[in-house]
C-alpha cells in the first residue's frame, strides 16, 4: 500500500482498535488460479509478544478454504472511517482557490498465511469469541449458548474455521495532515456542523493533528 510518511500509522494499538470496531475484512488470496476475494469478519488474537493471528470462519460450501495451502500470498484489508472532502471545507478556498477534492480514510493491510481449521472445539471457541465481541454493545448480549446445543452443533458442521497468521501489518491514516492549520480548523468546523456519524468521526480524526492551545 502506498503510504506517504505523514499518513503512516505505526501505533499497533490504534490498528488493533480499528479492526475491533470494523471487523469485516476483505481477504484476498493469490493462487495459481488468480486472485480470490472474500468478505469475512475476523478478530485479533495475541498469541505471544511476537505472534498475532486473526480468526474467523467461512461456509464449508465456500471453495476458498480449500485453496489456503496453495495460496502464495494472502492480504487482509480492514477499512475504517472514510469521507469525501469537498474543497468548500477549506478556508484557503476564499483566498486563492487553490484547492481540490480528496478523500480521507483509514485502512489497515496485513499480509500472512492462512490455515483452514476443522477442529470442533476450536470452532466453538472462535464463535464464542467473535459473538461476544459483536454483541458487547447490545443491552442484553446474545451468546452462542442461548441457541439449542443440537442446532449449534449442526451449524458448526457447515463451517470451516480460518486462522490468518500475520507476517506484516501497515496502517494508513489519511486525515488532512497535509493541509495547513487554517484548513484543518475549517474542515473540523464544517464536519462538526453535520450530524452524520462518519462526518463527526472524521472531524475527531482531523482534530488530532491540530496543536492544542496552551493554557495562559
Automatic annotation (TrEMBL):
<dbReference type="InterPro" id="IPR012349">
    <property type="entry name" value="Split_barrel_FMN-bd"/>
</dbReference>
<dbReference type="Pfam" id="PF04299">
    <property type="entry name" value="FMN_bind_2"/>
</dbReference>
<protein>
    <submittedName>
        <fullName>FMN-binding protein negative transcriptional regulator</fullName>
    </submittedName>
</protein>
<dbReference type="InterPro" id="IPR007396">
    <property type="entry name" value="TR_PAI2-type"/>
</dbReference>
Amino acid at each position: 500500500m502506498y503510504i506517504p510518511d505523514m499518513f503512516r500509522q505505526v501505533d499497533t494499538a490504534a490498528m488493533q482498535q480499528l479492526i475491533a470496531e470494523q471487523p469485516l475484512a476483505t481477504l484476498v488470496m493469490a493462487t495459481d488460479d488468480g486472485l480470490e476475494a472474500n468478505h469475512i469478519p475476523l478478530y485479533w488474537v495475541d498469541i505471544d509478544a511476537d505472534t498475532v493471528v486473526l480468526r474467523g470462519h467461512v461456509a464449508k460450501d465456500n471453495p476458498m478454504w480449500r485453496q489456503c495451502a496453495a495460496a502464495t500470498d494472502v492480504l487482509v484489508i480492514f477499512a475504517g472511517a472514510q469521507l469525501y472532502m469537498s474543497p468548500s471545507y477549506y478556508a484557503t478556498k476564499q483566498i486563492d482557490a487553490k484547492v481540490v477534492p480528496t478523500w480521507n480514510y483509514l485502512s489497515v493491510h496485513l499480509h500472512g498465511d492462512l490455515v483452514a481449521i476443522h477442529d470442533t472445539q476450536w470452532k466453538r471457541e472462535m464463535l464464542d469469541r467473535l459473538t461476544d465481541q459483536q454483541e458487547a454493545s447490545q443491552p442484553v448480549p446474545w451468546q452462542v449458548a442461548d441457541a439449542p446445543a443440537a442446532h449449534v452443533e449442526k451449524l458448526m458442521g457447515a463451517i470451516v474455521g480460518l486462522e490468518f497468521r500475520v507476517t506484516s501489518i501497515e496502517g494508513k491514516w489519511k486525515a488532512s495532515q497535509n493541509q495547513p492549520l487554517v484548513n484543518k480548523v475549517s474542515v473540523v468546523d464544517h464536519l462538526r456542523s453535520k450530524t452524520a456519524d462518519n462526518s463527526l468521526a472524521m472531524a475527531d480524526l482531523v482534530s488530532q493533528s491540530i496543536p492544542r492551545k496552551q493554557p495562559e
